[in-house]
User: Fold these one by one.
Assistant:
Number 1:
Amino acid sequence: MIKKLLFFFSLLPVFLSAQQESPETVQCSLIEAEMKAHMALHQAASVGFLNDYNLIYHRCEWSVDPAVNFIQGAITSYFKPTVNGFTQVHFDMSDSLRADSVLYHGMPITIQHSNNILCINLPAVVPLNQTDSLCVYYHGVPPATGFGSFYQGTHAGAPVIWTLSEPYGARDWWPSKQNLIDKIDSLDVFVTCPLGNLVAGNGTLVSDITNGSNKTVHWKTRYPIAAYLVAIAVTNYVSYSNYIHLNSGPDSMQILNYVYPEDLALAQSSTPQIIKTIALYDSLTITYPFSREKYGHAEFGWGGGMEHQTMSYVGGFSNVLISHECAHQWFGDRVTLASWHDIWLNEGFATYFEALTEERYFPQNWLNWKKSTTTDAMNSPNGSVWVDDTTSVPRIFSGSLSYSKGSYLLHMLRWKLGDQLFFRSLQNYLNDTTLAYRYAHTSDLQRHLENTSGQNLSNFFTQWFYGKGFPSYQVTWGQTGHTLSITLGQTQSDPSVAFFEMPVPIEFTGEGHDTTLVLNHTYSGQVFTANLNFIAEYAFFDPDLHILSGNNKVQTIQSPGAMASLFSLYPNPASGSMQVLNMNPSNPVSSIELYGIPGNVIRSWQVSGNQNLNSIDLTGIACGLYELRIKTDLGFVVKKLEVK
Ligand SMILES: [Zn+2]
């Protein structure tokens, strides 16, 4: 999902940092509710609830009226026990909903409903791996937790209902299995509502049948789907379609748009951009994952977007928003995070792929994306991309960490591996049959990056993913003849990381030339030397922003001319001896060498760095012109002198 605006507050910036929630009272109560709800979920998991059966199929029959905040439903479930002695089926279900009855083989059976868990007692043991089914009848007013779960309101005076379950809100409006272990293999949804409305849904539209003053709309999906990606939206939508030719799959796939009548013109002029976006994602990764069904957009009233499988719900139609939600169909829907600790597998990827559309189609925005994303990531100098507290919904959806820093980690991996190996790794990750249409941990992504590239990335993930903060670099350099000397230092914004390893690019320019050196930086204070075929005048640290870093001290770089002006020789011309005066005490001298012009070293002196004034002995040096090369911490300085 991407959240651009918040309902509750109007002062937050709109860019990616807006995902960070504000700690005002109304929000705190939501967070508290989420924490309690999440703890209940943990309790359930701890005793094996929800993990002891494989959910095969749901038939969801819902009745809603967008003018009324209420839902009535019947959920038929096919399941297979994965343990012996299976006698109870558990669903996540809000205590605010009421289970009217549960029918098993046509007969009512007993239930308990508390702590947001519906426990259904089967009359006899269902054997391991034997498919069975039951149906839950329920109704109620869904509570408003998380990002809304189930919203009823209006747009331009027309009533609307939409759902947004991520992360823990599916159970607020239907009895579901909302852990991140077992996807629903197959799903049919029937929504009955008053005539005059359209119903947005997952998968393929099967039928839309009028029955008196009501209608029933049937959607089906035959791709596995996580409970939080199941959604409906009901209002007086108008619809239109675009079509796309995919690399493989059907000749022409529908892109179905359900938009508010008042926004039709804006939508029709904006959404066709998604055709180029899908083509780009197809070419960089693999074919759109739900090509046998559809892709689409349904407009909703939330200030952002949500990647409901095969039909993203969007609060607007900007390229950034629709590209982000579309990328989730690969990263989030096809391969879904296996833990909320790993939300970057959804949000870091969607944010980065949204940016790749800028790089490809709006290159004028690309550098700015890197700058603003770096700046946003640095708003959390003591945070990690790995989510350390999954009881906090604002922490899971931290804009600066899960979105900005997460996306920049991908940008850095692309830099380390190169385009070809990076994107091939992603293809292998998406095609892994243990992950596709299932769930993945960060370790799964790391394994594919390592296997494809041959690089060991354990330090990268330890430092950049689990570690907190970001580095700041200090570069000092000098040049003697064609030999560059570069000292590269690093400090960190958080003490949890002693050092961030990265290949560090520095660009040197001068005499009409430029060259970029990539330094394999493995410790702070590391000294690099390299030959340049021109005299460098300027150095630029990471000019293309490959590395997440900030507060870099590029100003300490001195040109040879500027450094040389801080040394003076006297007397000059000289005979017998000469004084070398260093006027910059912060740049101590370590050695001095005398060269002929042209020629080799004639005499050298090791000197104490603490001494600003050094006397050198010129006895026995023939009359003539020479060069004095003074080695300092910032590089070499060359001064001309005459011996008489
Ligand atoms: Zn997202």
Number 2:
Amino acid sequence: MNKVLITGGCGFIGFHMINKLIKKNNIILNLDFLGYASSKKDLNYKKNYSFINADIKNFAKLKKIIFEFSPNYILNFAAESHVDNSIVNANPFINSNIIGTFNLLQIAKNLPNTFKMFLHISTDEVFGSLSLNQKKRFSEKTPYDPSSPYSASKAASDHLVKAWGRTYNVPYIITNCSNNFGPRQFHEKLIPVIILSCINKRFIPVYGNGKNIRDWIFVEDHCNALESIMLKGKVFSQYLIGARNNYSNIKLVKKICKLLDKIKPNKSGLNSYSDLIKFVSDRPGHDVKYSIDPTKIENELKWKPKYNFESALKLTIKWYLNNVNYWN
Ligand SMILES: NC(=O)c1ccc[n+]([C@@H]2O[C@H](COP(=O)([O-])OP(=O)(O)OC[C@H]3O[C@@H](n4cnc5c(N)ncnc54)[C@H](O)[C@@H]3O)[C@@H](O)[C@H]2O)c1
């Protein structure tokens, strides 16, 4: 039985990872400071699970908790994660994402040799932007070139992890995943914004001309990939995770509107939910395109996404229809 410390387990991806690992006989300690995008709802496990309200910025408290638990694995999900917020105020991003990771690494380097891995969950945004017509995709060899305060803070934390691996021998793996979606994602992110705007018949904001391309992955597929990496991944290395679902924002919005037209035909004057689309001024420094080449994880770990994009979108839409007030 492995002891797994999950930081940020009350957020979107960490929550799904806990649900996966708890079924596989792991002992989970979920450490989260319960920020605005987190919830303890639906984490009611009586066995092999505990929650602690703590901040990864607080070194002394963190050290005590981690040494007492003595994890075999640390999975670091805790981060400020919304690009728009980072543009308004970068401070919490620098503190949680960089200083928080630094604190965890300082503790990890002194853990006994029962400690197997610091799994650092990062983003493809650290690589900056591809240009629209470029065929090239991000790979493990792509140099870092972050654009936003969010992606710069994640890039900095990735560099710290690598340095602590090389200098202090902290066994680590860094993962850089594309845009996630799925049930229970906080309503500030694009796919929940689209779905909830349709449900509430509010306009659907689309940045710029909507042509920016994102690479989408269902959260369950991301968590399956993370589990494979925990069990079979090579330490002191990096894996990019993506499901080869490249869509321009406008194409994605129209796809969701079309699905909702079928799942929840609207009865108040709109021909289609796509009538609600409204283009709004672009985000400063907005990356044009992200696209992941997942060949390494596919070949080395035999991981492949299990979910078809459209069926995962339907599943997500249905979850929001049944849980409109989840985050209220
Ligand atoms: N959502 C995506 O599309 C995506 C894609 C690739 C990588 N990631 C990375 O995955 C991780 C999780 O993302 P998410 O979408 O679940 O984010 P989220 O915002 O939903 O969850 C983050 C969680 O971390 C907690 N947290 C933040 N700062 C903390 C601190 N100082 N101390 C303790 N807890 C803290 C929050 O309370 C929250 O519960 C992040 O590191 C993010 O960079 C996300």
